[in-house]
Structure prediction request, 419 residues.
Amino acid sequence: MAGDRNSKYGFAITSLVVVVLLFLLIADFAAISSLRKLLESEAYRNAEEEISLVEASIKEPILRRDYAMVEQFLMEWSKQHHHIVGVKAIAPNGFILFDYSRKLTSAHTFQVKRYVKYGGTTLSILEAAYDLSAFDERIGRLTIGLIAGSVILASFFGVVLWYVLRKTAMIPLEREVAERKKAEEEIAKYAAELEESNRIKDLFTDIMRHDLINPAGVIRGCAEILYERENDDDKKEIIELIRNNSQQFIEMIENASMYSRLNYITDIDRDLLDLGGMLKEIIHNFEFDMMEKNMGINFERKKVYAMNANKMIHDVFSNLISNAIKYSPDKSMVEVKISEENENWLVSVKDSGEGIREEDKEKIFERFERVTSTSIKGTGLGLAIAKRIVALHEGRIWVEANPEGGSMFCVSLPKKGAA
Ligand code: ADP
Prediction:
């Protein structure tokens, strides 16, 4: 990732350097072109001055018709000036008085032409060709120097920019990237540990579900047989203790594995069922327990309470009714009611037990909160399981105080399309 950013910055800086270089080169060529124009006009002016002097010098010999003198002067003058590549002096009648030419070293020349006059009469036409190759060389050298200077300047700019950027932005960025990488590694390590502990938890749940429940069932079965066969009351009492505790043990295993399974489920299958019929059946299942405590349950099934739900919902009400019986005094009444609330069925289970303290009203639905509260008696997972099942049905479960004493557990469940 840091390499990626480095190359991104490298690309940006290179692009910038190229742009700066192009800009400098354009400036170089503009400067060279105006310098060339300046030098050319300077050379032209000098040539004009020179030719004026020559004109003045040859005027008199021409008037005297001393053409030998003219020729001699022009020859010397031509040889003395290396930048002159050709000189011609032509009489008005076309007669060539002087003609000199040197082999050209460059194609870049310019010509100066002058009419040598006396009192309005043209005595001769003087032409001189000037060589600009030295001048070209100078311009060429200057061009190379400027280009090299521009390349050095742009590269220097790039290096400085890279250095400044590294100092101000990239080093903190690299540090940030390194820190993020470290954090990612720690997360990956933590995820691996979590996966391992989940695997162990799954293994443990599996052992509970399959390997512990069978021997516990055998213990319970044997205790039942022994209980039936035993006549000694003291022994019978001990056997009953074994039977009840092994039953509790089995229930705890079943609840724990169900709770663990429910935590994985996110979606449920639904079937059309009658909530009233289900509650009637559950109440019927608890008849023996109620008889033992001399208790009664009030429930009026007025109609069909249809809803689309999973059969697991049975466990929710089974737990609420079981608790209501368990935590109520003998000879008391439990009241179960279904009412309609928009698209939901609202089921309430009211008992006249000792009720639930305000600060425990949330905790009783959370298995892991239980340890801190001394007022919560049980060790089971019933309400935590109920809460999870209700949540899977997109419903709500809560507890309120029964105004006549005791508690009232409420469950609101969407009918989910059932009429
Ligand atoms: P268990 O009943 O097996 O302990 P639950 O999860 O069903 O497990 O209940 C959690 C706790 O909530 C119980 O231990 C009890 O303290 C309290 N509780 C549940 N129902 C009632 C009730 N009807 N009246 C009073 N307390 C209750």
